[in-house]
Write the structure tokens for this entry.
Amino acid sequence: QSDAGTAVRVFGTLLTWMQERSSPVFVVATANKLEALPPELLRRGRFDEIFFVDLPGAATRAEILGIHLAKRGRDPGKFDLQALASACSEFSGAELEHVVIEALFAAFDADREIEDDDLLDAITETTPLARTSAEEVQRLREWSRTRARAADLDSEKPGRV
């Protein structure tokens, strides 16, 4: 069966379950292409709110970098996370994790501990999806202005009204 046929069947099953469930359930779902979902799935009563999650702001990027450094046994306090966060304004959380991993590889290859410069080099060498797909990101931001609630009210975000 085709992918489209499978998707229709899955959505049908989900809609039926949502309509017929007998106990209270809190359902959260994510989608990168909301316009591809059937309208009946998005009406009030099925999903009560649509939130738009934009790219992280500077404070959140610094926090994400710190989390990934700590996750890999490094003390985030030894890094200038604010400066690093400023250097990667268009990066997603996944891209920030990749920056930490790449920097660790570079430091390992140089037989030393990771430094801010390793992270800056990894940032410089990474082209974020927000840049390679800038039109799509802008389209999503424009779409969200009148159709979704902001999940994060970070004022740095260009898609906010």
Observations:
- The longest helix spans residues 3-20.
- Confidence is low (pLDDT under 50) at residues 155-161.
- The radius of gyration is 20 Å.
- Residues 3 and 9 are 10 Å apart (CA to CA).
